[in-house]
Write a structure and sequence with these properties.
It comes from Lyngbya confervoides BDU141951. This is PDZ domain-containing protein. It is a single chain. By secondary structure, the chain is mostly beta strands. The chain is 12% helix and 43% strand. It has eight helices and 34 strands. The strands form four sheets. Strands 1, 2, 4, 5, 6, 7, 8, 9, 10, 11, 12 and 13 form a twelve-stranded mixed sheet that branches. It is globular and about 60 Å long.
Length: 415
């Protein structure tokens, strides 16, 4: 019989949370100081790190502090000669369970640093393809909690670097804010406060999730009044391991991380959380507010994860007070083709510029402002629809063999 476990939620890009077996590791840390800087790639608000598996060539894996296990695609599994230790059923965002495979032990190597996760899963090709279409890059896998258990991990989004240090010799002397962490099932949680307006605020516990491309994601513990704040906000589909799930997307006045205030972050509230709050008969459900802080917020800091001392250090960078922007077109766009440089409209959201201009699911983008989209990454395509309200974009699309020219006037769709 297949093992059944929960493997969190994929939000927009990649966000894994859940209750899985913990990971152990073999590390090079010891009594002598150890420090290693690794070049990373930031693509579409995700951190990719070069990781060799079983002595093979380095391949870009997504670094995910919200995932206990590491994940590999079936193709990578075959290439590295991994063998199955049995089936496992995992659940993520969306209703459909996913049949994955537990793999026998594998040796990972991050630029000369050996790691041996106690659990690595192989996910089906259909899921890998969906994640490639959503991220616009060939999805090869995820490096989960094993790295954070073994080292103090510094992520510098602006310099696109990762620095590893041995916990036993790590000393911090910078000017960042040192905040206490709770480590639960090898994942880092931070107490923070959501400020709804000048009078109302709610403390909560939030996963610091490098695998999420969101800013703030509220998953449980909303009161009825808090849920009602999002009733007028637009619905959006979040793509995950198990398909799609509805969320409402709006803004809160601020997120307070200790003494640090992050103003007006874009906030997604899952449909199940809204339903549960709506069924509540009391002002508060009795369940603490909980959710996830993703890379739209974390990228505004140099982030140092120190599981050994149970702290996270946040050093604000120049973007810490920058405004948050979201799509202004109403198009959900996915990448296709062998090079993932063909772009198809997956969803046209109602009451948006794209809906009013007659875009339809299945439309294939050809040009944006006379630039062929084949020369752009998916992230660059999406960025073209984030600008000043009133900006006009000229698009050519192909629909059932016909070439259509359309204009889009971008609009701030969030309150």
């Amino acid at each position: 019989m297949a093992d059944t476990r929960t493997l969190g939620r994929w939000i927009i890009g990649v966000a894994l949370v859940g209750s899985l077996l913990g990971c152990q590791s073999q590390s090079t840390s010891g009594p002598s100081p150890f420090k290693l800087k690794v070049s990373a790639q930031i693509h579409g608000n995700l951190v990719y790190v070069p990781t060799a598996i079983n002595g093979g060539p380095p391949r870009p894996l997504i670094l995910d502090s919200g995932a206990q296990p590491s994940l590999l695609t079936q193709e990578v599994t075959r290439q590295v000669g991994a063998t199955s230790a049995g089936p496992i059923i995992i659940h993520g965002i969306g209703a459909a369970p996913v049949q994955a495979k537990r793999l026998n032990p594998l040796l990972f190597d991050l630029t000369g640093v050996p790691l041996q996760p106690s659990q690595v899963l192989a996910i089906p090709d259909s899921v890998s393809q969906s994640l490639s279409q959503q991220t616009g890059r060939p999805f090869q896998g995820i490096l989960g909690s094993v790295l954070f258990q073994s080292y103090v991990v510094e992520v510098d989004f602006q310099r696109q670097t990762l620095q590893l240090q041995s916990p036993s010799t790590f000393r911090y002397s910078g000017s960042g804010q040192v905040l206490p962490l709770k480590i639960k099932q090898q994942r880092p949680y931070l107490e923070a406060t959501v400020r709804w307006n000048d009078q109302d605020q709610t403390p909560g516990e939030f996963l610091l999730d490098l695998g999420s491309t969101q800013a703030l994601d509220l998953q449980s513990g909303l009161s009825l009044a808090e849920a009602q704040r999002f009733q007028g906000d637009p619905e959006r589909w979040m793509i995950g391991l198990g398909g799609q799930e509805r969320s409402r997307v709006g803004r809160v006045q601020a997120l307070e991380l200790g003494p640090i205030t992050v103003p007006n972050p874009i906030t997604a509230v899952s449909h199940p959380a809204l339903l549960k709050a709506g069924q509540s008969k009391s002002p508060r459900s009795g369940v603490p507010l909980a959710g996830r802080i993703g890379n739209q917020i974390l990228s505004r800091f140099k982030v140092i994860f120190n599981y050994h001392d149970r702290v996270v250090i946040l050093e604000p960078n120049a973007q810490v007070q920058a405004p948050f922007f979201a799509d202004m077109s109403g198009l959900q766009i996915l990448a296709e083709g062998s090079q993932l440089n063909e772009y198809r409209v997956a969803t046209v959201y109602p009451h948006t510029p794209a809906h009013r201009q007659g875009f339809a699911p299945g439309d294939r983008l050809l040009t944006i402002d006379q630039t062929s989209v084949s020369t752009l990454s998916l992230h660059q395509v999406r960025q073209r629809f984030i600008s000043s309200p009133g900006t006009v974009r000229q698009l050519q699309v192909e629909r059932r063999g016909a070439i259509l020219t359309k204009s889009l006037i971008l609009e701030d769709l969030l309150r």
